[in-house]
Amino acid sequence: MSRAETGSTPRAGTGSANESGPVGVDAAGRGAEGESGVLAVRAPSGLWSLGLFRSELVTVLRRWRTLALLGVLAAVPVLIGIAVRIETPGKGGGRGGGGGPAFIEQITNNGLFLVFASLAATLPVFLPMAVGVVAGDAVAGEASSGTLRYLLVAPAGRTRLLLAKYVSVLAFCLAATLAVALSALAVGALLFPLGDVTTISGTQISFADGLLRALAIAAVVAASLTGIAALGLFISTLTNSGIAAMASTVGLLITVQILGQIPQLHAIQPYLFTRYWLSFADVLREPVYWDQLVKNFELQALYVAVFGSAAWARFTTKDITA
Description:
- By secondary structure, the protein is mostly helical.
- 60% of the residues lie in helices and 1% in strands.
- It has helices spanning 15-20, 46-61, 64-87, 102-106, 113-122, 126-145, 148-153, 158-191, 207-224, 226-236, 242-259, 291-315; strands at residues 197-198, 204-205.
- Mean pLDDT is 80; it is low at 4-43 and 91-100.
């Protein structure tokens, strides 16, 4: 979605370009000459750079589509909680969703488990799809609406602009994860009892400790989405169509999920960015198992480095005419 859809105007520093007519930006980042003459571009200041990051973050988080995505994600724990509550009418008794995942079976005994169950339910599909939509639209959406060239005329530099775009996508990763976790915590507290938490290892920890672990799990889930965020940003630099970039990112996500389920492809599965997504469950062990968690962080860092560099190489060398 472009800035035009949110009712916002080009940032400070782009007014001269807007007044002088259409302006193209070449691969070296130079503003083309408009009808009124050659544009003078000043070096960006530190405060201007901070303003750029803040502006990108606000732009992403206030879009109606972003708010709708967060609303849908927050509704998932509500649906799970109501379904489990209906299946177990006895308050705090029995096992919910017989035969279901272990987290869901524990919800009726402790509402805090709704946080873990909701993150486990949304991480494979809903959360990464939402991130893919936002990341895919980051650059391509600006190009399709014609606002990208105005951003580049401002004294930001392509590297700063791309970094600001990626930081805003990472902020959405965290916001989306917290939307699920906080909604699940509220619904769990309303529908089920709260108390000491039984870890996967079978030991008991206090509710306060369990709450801290829930926050740690949310952070791990958000970090698990950094790889697809970088991949989506790279795809966004390849096209001027926001819809095409979003569809390609989501399609690639679905393809990777399918590849991860085919036993004959076990040789490549350790390198898929989805491989260790569910390793966050190890945070609920006593003591915490770090092996899979560290592998997850390393794999996501690899994807960020590779596709972040590819996005930078593409974005800093392409001619922007839209």
